[in-house]
Amino acid sequence: MKELIEITENLAKIIGQMETQRKNLGTFLRETNSLTDLELTDEILENKLIIPITEDGPSNFKVAGVDGGLLKKSFHGIDLMLLKACGVVFSYEDSKLANTEYYPDSMPTPEPRIIMDPFNDIEFEVNSNIERQIKEVQTAIETIEKFEPDILFMHGSVIPHYTFIPEKGTLLSENYKRMIETYSKLFDTVKKKKTVLAGVIEDSRGLRFCDILNNFLFIHNNPKFPPEMKIVLTRTKDSNLLSYALQKNERSLVFPYSAQAAQHPILKEFGDNKIFTFYLKTAEFDRPVRIDFLGDKGVIDKANFISSITLKMVGHEGYGMPSVIIEADQRAKLEENELEMVYQDILNKTGNIPGLSEQRRNQRPF
């Protein structure tokens, strides 16, 4: 026990030292922001690191949020999934919420799926994630087509989340292709309807902002910067650093999602559709959120528009997510017993067949 206490004391000391270094770096960025104009490049799209945002913006607008839910379970011969997605539309008049609508309705019916393909555990996990994203994105497309909101927020990024790219010709690759096609249709839809598409990432592990600082800003703009701070940047996530650098109603500069979009495993699938990113401090006592958005012309204006709308929709100083996404999340949430009810209903109709047997790991007598 004594050894364990000593280990935790040392760990706490290391963590505290690193956090102090991050705080010092964040403070430095704030202090130098007003004194330094950055040189614009393909990656640095604004001449300041920190941009103040007002909540003025439009007073009459329509904003949508989409989120999805997924439950899944593997049995001896099949895999069972339950999917649900919901679109929520808030209409504002004079900056006040005037109306709320839902798509397909306020309490969407979960969609059961039986997966007969012989996926291994990892493939089943990836396939489930692909199916969930297809469901969410298709719901977003239909929400835009029906309500034509000024802006639509996804819960998560506006490009697919991936773990690996399936090999061509496999069963998984066909579903992956469907997912890419659905996202491409979403991008085409928002362009036709002139809806701004943005994704709010709740717990980002992004490193791009720190990479840009490390690779460009210190070299070109501040050669006297303490060398140990470069080490801090290589060990820090963007949101951790920006928790110290940003204050409420401020955002970071806008930057491309990837330095090499043509070589990025996902972005290269979408051709000329460009994705940009920034961080926004929406609540006094919460970390900044990351926002990814589809941009072409007027990228900075879009970032300011997204920021002003987002700030209008955060009503809790300890939780910085916009309310339309919170509502969509609650409507799309699935309870564990819902999957069990579907399973029992199928079992009652088929009888106790081997394919529906529980896996042994769930039936251990000890």
Notes on the protein architecture:
With 366 residues, the protein is of the alpha+beta class. The chain has a single domain (52-208, 234-345), classed as archaeoglobus fulgidus dsm 4304 fold, CATH 3.30.2170. 41% of the residues lie in helices and 21% in strands. It contains 9 helices and 11 strands. The chain has helices spanning 2-33, 121-147, 171-193, 208-221, 228-234, 238-245, 299-312, 323-332, 336-350, and strands at 50-52, 61-74, 79-93, 96-103, 111-115, 151-155, 196-201, 250-252, 255-256, 274-281, 289-295. Strands 1, 2, 3, 4, 5, 6, 7, 8, 9, 10 and 11 form an 11-stranded mixed beta sheet that branches. Strand 2 (61-74) and strand 3 form a beta hairpin. The radius of gyration is 23 Å and the shape is globular.
CATH architecture descriptor? 2-Layer Sandwich
The overall strand count is: 11
Distance between the ends = 29 Å
What oligomeric state is this? single chain
**Molecular shape:** globular
Structural class: alpha+beta
CATH class: Alpha Beta
